[in-house]
Amino acid sequence: MSTYDDTRRAWDEASSKHVREYAEHLEQARTARLLPIEEEQLRPLIEDAEVLHPQSGHGLDDHALIRLGAHSVLGLDYSPTAVAAAQRRADELGAQCRYELAELPDTGRPAQSADLVYTGKGALIWMADLDAWAAEMHRLLRPGGHLFVYEGHPLVPLWAWDHDEARVREDRSYFAASHVNDTFPARGATEHQRTLAQLVMTVLGAGFELLHLAEHPDPFWMPDDENPAAAWDGRLPNAISLLARRRR
Ligand SMILES: C[S@@+](CC[C@H](N)C(=O)[O-])C[C@H]1O[C@@H](n2cnc3c(N)ncnc32)[C@H](O)[C@@H]1O
């Protein structure tokens, strides 16, 4: 069994959380909102948009995208458990969200079928081939369509989770190609790294123009811990937002 299969199995097992917490997620979906920076970037371009959400996971953001004005959202994920839980919730709420199984970077979706691709929050680190990912995002978008990514900052794998002081882990390098995940949910799986410059240059090289790029101090996810890591105290970058437009 390959490392890739192990990672996929780890995600499907981790996605059983979406089933266990179904009732809670259902309530959250009724009022879900995107982060303020996401709403600020997406509000001008989302009205009636057909949105594609690769690696949609629990899919709560899809309800937020509809609330912001999207016409519909198609979530794609390779976890059957995640896809089934998200579809059940969307059906129960009568939301214009649909979910399909797909294994990135090749989604198998028709070319130019989306106005907006929304992705991130723990997605890109699972992509071994970022060029292939960027080419697929470009293929899926109609000319002039937008790619929006809200993602962990490429420096995040370096931050230790010490509470007293922010520290750089001795076993990690900003310039490494990958590292082994040592936390939930994919302990032991290979995560793929790229620098911020590599990410931006890959997106530009795939045929996009950059409209927005920002770094943010708050992580997109924190463990349920009373005492958060010192690396999250507002002095270090923990997330990025990127908006790019497909050139015609
Ligand atoms: C950290 S979750 C984030 C998902 C979503 N942004 C959210 O907030 O729930 C990562 C998701 O990517 C999916 N995933 C990882 N690698 C994938 C691949 N190659 N193809 C499709 N889905 C993948 C996993 O199943 C998981 O649902």
Short structural description:
With 248 residues, this protein is an alpha/beta fold. Helices cover 31% and strands 23% of the residues.
Strand tally is 9
Secondary-structure element series: HHHHEHEHEEHEEEHEE
> Given the helix and strand composition, which structural class is it?
alpha/beta
Beta fraction of the residues? 15-25%
CATH class: Alpha Beta
Strand arrangement, largest sheet? 3-2-1-4-5-9-8
What is the helix content?
Answer: 25-40%
Q: Give me the CATH architecture, please.
A: 3-Layer(aba) Sandwich
Could you characterize what this model shows?
This protein is of the alpha/beta class. It has a single domain, classed as Vaccinia Virus protein VP39 (Rossmann fold, 3-Layer(aba) Sandwich). Helix content is 31%, strand content 23%. It has helices at 3-14, 16-20, 22-31, 36-42, 60-68, 80-93, 130-140, 196-205; strands spanning 50-54, 72-77, 97-101, 114-120, 141-152, 178-180, 190-192, 208-216, 239-246. α6 (80-93) links the parallel β2 (72-77) and β3. α3 packs parallel to α5 and α7 (130-140) crosses α8. It is globular. It starts with a helix and ends with a strand. Bound molecules: S-adenosylmethionine.
